[in-house]
Amino acid sequence: MNDSPEELQPTKISPYSHKQSTPKEASPTSSYKPRNSTPESLLKTKSAHKTTSTESLPAMTNKANKTRSGSSKLDPSDLPSTKPRSVSSTNKGDSPERHKPRLSTPVKSDSPTDKRMIALKVKPKDESALPEPWLLTELTEEQKEKINLFRNGPAAEFITPEDDDLQIVRWLTARKWDITESSKMFIESKKWRKTENMDAISEWIQNIKPYKFLTEYFPCSIIPEKQCPPIRTRDGYLVVYESVTEMHADILDIVNLDDMVKFHLYCQELVSKSLRRLLAEEKSGTYAGIVFVQDLISLTISHLCRSNYQMFQVFTTFDSANYPESIRRIFFINAPPVFTMAWKVAKNFVDPNTLKKTVILGNDFQKELLAVLPPESIPKVYGGTLDWKVTGGGPIKGLKKFT
User: Fold this and answer.
1) Cα–chain-centroid distance for residue 262?
2) What residues make up the domain containing 211?
3) pLDDT in tens, 4-34
4) Which pairs from 255-258 meet CB under 8 Å and 24+ separation?
5) Which pLDDT score, from 0 to 100, does residue 86 have?
6) Is 351 a domain residue?
7) Residue 362 lies in a domain
8) What's the total number of domains in the chain?
């Protein structure tokens, strides 16, 4: 995602043999070695209307990958595109193309001709304030009509009982309530989910070799093994803590990008399920995305290698194409001075709407967190009363590569 991108649609991933038995364990072939050089530069993303083939990102119908075996990989040099397609593995060395930005949803004005669309309303002069939840009762007649058009248009055959009106509003908002574009985005995501069996990711993710390692090592509160108690905002919506910089800067030396992407998507699915359950049980008729707290206390210059930027770009590309409007507010806390340099590059991959929801704080962040989270939802290490903290990360020296 660039400063002026279209939403990128991720290419297909190839989960390990979730329709078969677990592949035979391979013997480790190499020991951990510090990365001495950055990987090859990223592939140039081709125009959205062109389609090529690849061996590194095979489609499910690819003859060479019919068995969906553990030997398939997501090539670290491949970048997702705006359509479900494969990327040629021969075009290395170029930077991704830049794309046009998605504008934010218009907000109601005093003009009688202004057509108000549902919007996330932020209190003025307070970037930390949470956007108000979307309320089903506040939908206008125009919005309701567009939801009906969406339901009865090309997307109709892909809509499931879980896709209630407020879920459809997420896709419409992501494309400025354009029926054609939002339907296209929705359909492509649904096809991707079916092809990759995303509804069963909790089952097949266990077949990737670093699964057990990552459930302990990946520092995110949503992972069940972290045993995080329910944490909510002051108005009762979902909060997720993460401290990704606790991971070693050379994590890709032992876990390949393909598996890191799959595990990231597993975490996204856990967030989505938790959010749906909360909204169904406690917040019926409303919708608000998650408040995401990312602790950057361990960020070093070593984390800013090209391969880690690339991993971050792939993560955000999948997220923006398949989990629209899922963020309510992102707090980066304990941001060191080096993050200023990192953010200048990283924000090019982030959707413009997500950038507007991002708040960057140093080590004096307690006031901002307490404004939106009750003390019992803030770990003691951050100045709250919650007797829990996200765990994970640490050194990887001596660990062998998961092959």
Assistant:
1) 11
2) 200-382
3) 334 434 445 544 444 444 444 444 433 434 3
4) 255/210, 255/213, 255/214, 255/401, 255/402, 256/73, 256/74, 256/76, 256/401, 256/402, 257/74, 257/75, 257/76, 257/307, 257/310, 257/311, 257/314, 258/13, 258/14, 258/72, 258/73, 258/74
5) 37
6) yes
7) yes
8) 1
